User: Which sequence fits this backbone?
């Protein structure tokens, strides 16, 4: 519910309640006043009757609204309402019965007075009352709405700016200056918070870069020294093998470091810029990088790009995704095996021959999971693939039925 | 090589600089060392350099600042950025500012050597269009190989390997180094050792088939050495 709707609803319900109670009170008090008036007029007519009756026979005083009957009751005095039918219309009357004595005879005198006039008056007052109240509500409703809207205008612009806020972009969050104390405070808090978030983001990015720098430089020294040592003429086979192993391990360490930094960068949303491009072209382009590797292992390539699929992604991440999948399917392929790449219905499937996994299928996306035979694989390529898929909400699944198969559905990407 | 190329190595890590300088000297370059931006600027005024090896993270500032200065002063100076920061934006920024190549630490010396030579060749086309080594003639721009004046058909990978070996003569190059070179930026390796073996085998076969001496020697099964007497 919008803030404006909420306050308007509050205002309307309070107003309706107040109006109902007020109208009732007003109705009853007007009715009371009218009844009092009718009573006074009846009493006045009674006095006039008694006065006139002193000179006249009571029976002569009977008129349209004055009835006289003989009675045994000497103590009559009561007010009541009654209905008379005149001209086939029901008319409400106020009635006063009282007893009157003339020549030792008791009479019951009834005086009627029409209530229709006062009813009409009450009706008119009620209508006017409702009319004024409606007008009042309408005006108040719009005045209230407008004033809240203008008072909270800055608040709404704050919401819009917060929606557009991106931690990876360098522009700082600058909110409009507000007159309302609360909104002003809110904006100050948001500005402070966004600056803090951005600061954290930058320091994390710097930290990642620094770790990379601090680790890569010593690794560069180790590998350069090992390379230098390898050039000596008098090395035995064992010494040479050890140096080669040292070089290889250092290189491996550096690769792991780079891969972890890359994963961190994906998590930190470092690669945010994207563009739309054809997946078909990307697959063909990247596949050409592996021409030699495919040839070397005598792998039969079955490429089946059925429909043209466009994706919106960061180009570097898309490249990494495709390269890692193809590389994985080549590295873990058998000599003379099959590499099957199918793109159909926005789903990419990359499958390769090979014996079943030596570890639990569920662990395939975990970092550093790899089969025992492939000691040289880092076991991180597929983790990177999964992380990229997560980032873009693509569904990725692994299955094995004679062939290892990775399936990615690019449809989740709007 | 007709003249010794002056190379400026801007690197704050002294141990790494020492190794790099020793390596470059061995390979016929005449290297100079600057440990920060200040001394680099001073040396650039004093000497005539063919190429600069520029580390980006320096004690007195970002090496990026130097790229424009160097390129504005003399465009033919080859400029290779070396950095541990494998950040894509830094790489692009550096290349846009005018750097000719980019190496990520840790790099292998033969790789550095090959890249340095390639950059210098590219920038001084008239000086060194072909590389001649005994019976081998290489034309890097056209990717052509001549043995005893006869054309030899090589694949792109084989040509790259041969050029790499010729650039790094009489030096043990480990399989790791070669694998890194061959799979360039796409290695998380795993199949590179086999790949290195296959391609070198093919290259050797083609070379001997065309009457070329067997320069590429296997060293204890851990690497190769292009031996020129």
Assistant:
């Amino acid at each position: 519910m919008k803030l404006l709707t909420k306050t308007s609803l509050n205002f309307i319900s309070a107003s309706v309640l107040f109006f109902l109670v007020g109208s009732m009170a007003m109705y009853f008090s007007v009715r009371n006043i009218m009844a009092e008036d009718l009573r006074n007029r009846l009493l006045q007519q009674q006095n006039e009757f008694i006065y006139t009756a002193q000179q006249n026979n009571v029976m002569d005083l009977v008129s349209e609204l004055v009835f006289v009957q003989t009675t045994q009751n000497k103590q009559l005095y009561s007010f009541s309402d009654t209905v008379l039918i005149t001209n086939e219309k029901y008319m409400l009357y106020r009635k006063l019965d009282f007893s009157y004595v003339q020549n030792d005879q008791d009479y019951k005198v009834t005086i009627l007075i029409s209530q229709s006039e006062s009813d009409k008056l009450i009706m008119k007052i009620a209508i006017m009352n409702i009319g004024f109240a409606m007008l009042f509500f309408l005006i108040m409703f719009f005045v209230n709405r407008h004033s809240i809207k203008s008072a909270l205008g800055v608040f709404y612009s704050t919401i819009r700016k917060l929606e557009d806020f991106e931690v990876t972009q360098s522009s700082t969050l600058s909110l409009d200056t507000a007159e309302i104390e609360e909104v002003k405070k809110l904006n100050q808090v948001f500005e402070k918070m966004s600056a803090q978030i951005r600061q954290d983001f930058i320091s994390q990015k710097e930290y990642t870069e620094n770790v990379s720098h601090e680790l890569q430089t010593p690794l560069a020294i180790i590998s350069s020294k090992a390379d230098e040592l390898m050039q000596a003429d008098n090395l035995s086979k064992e010494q040479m093998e050890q140096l080669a192993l040292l070089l290889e391990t250092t290189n491996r360490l550096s690769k792991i470091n780079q891969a972890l930094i890359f994963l961190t960068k994906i998590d930190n949303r470092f690669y945010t810029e994207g563009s739309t491009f054809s997946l078909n072209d990307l697959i063909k382009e990247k596949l050409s990088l592996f021409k030699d590797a495919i040839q070397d292992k005598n792998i039969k390539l079955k490429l089946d790009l059925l429909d043209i699929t466009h994706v919106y992604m960061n180009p570097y991440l898309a490249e990494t995704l495709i390269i890692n999948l193809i590389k994985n399917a080549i590295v873990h392929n058998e000599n003379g095996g099959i590499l099957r790449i199918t793109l159909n219905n926005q789903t990419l499937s990359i499958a390769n021959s090979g014996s079943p996994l030596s570890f639990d299928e569920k662990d395939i996306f975990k970092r550093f999971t790899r089969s025992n035979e492939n000691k040289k694989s880092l076991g991180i390529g597929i983790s990177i693939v999964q992380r990229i898929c997560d980032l873009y909400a693509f569904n990725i699944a692994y299955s094995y039925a004679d062939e290892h198969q990775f399936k990615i559905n690019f449809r989740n990407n709007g | 090589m007709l003249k010794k190329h002056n190379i400026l190595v801007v690197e704050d890590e002294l141990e790494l600089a020492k190794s790099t300088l020793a390596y470059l000297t061995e390979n016929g370059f005449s290297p100079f060392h600057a440990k920060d931006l200040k001394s680099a600027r001073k040396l650039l005024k004093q000497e005539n350099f063919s190429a600069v090896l520029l580390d980006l993270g320096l004690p007195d500032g970002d090496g990026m600042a130097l790229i424009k200065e160097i390129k504005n002063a003399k465009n033919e100076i080859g400029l290779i950025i070396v950095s541990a920061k494998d950040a894509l934006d830094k790489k692009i920024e550096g290349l846009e500012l005018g750097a000719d190549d980019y190496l990520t630490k840790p790099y292998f010396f033969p790789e550095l050597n090959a890249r340095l030579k390639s950059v210098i060749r590219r920038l001084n086309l008239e000086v060194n269009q072909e590389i001649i080594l005994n019976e081998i003639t290489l034309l890097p721009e056209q990717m052509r190989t001549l043995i005893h004046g006869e054309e030899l058909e090589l694949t792109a990978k084989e040509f790259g390997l041969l050029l790499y070996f010729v650039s790094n003569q009489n030096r043990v190059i480990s399989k790791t180094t070669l694998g890194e070179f061959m799979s360039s930026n796409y290695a998380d390796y795993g199949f590179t050792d086999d790949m290195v073996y296959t391609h070198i085998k093919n290259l050797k076969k083609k070379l001997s088939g065309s009457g070329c001496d067997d320069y590429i020697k296997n060293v204890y099964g851990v690497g190769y050495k292009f031996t020129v007497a």
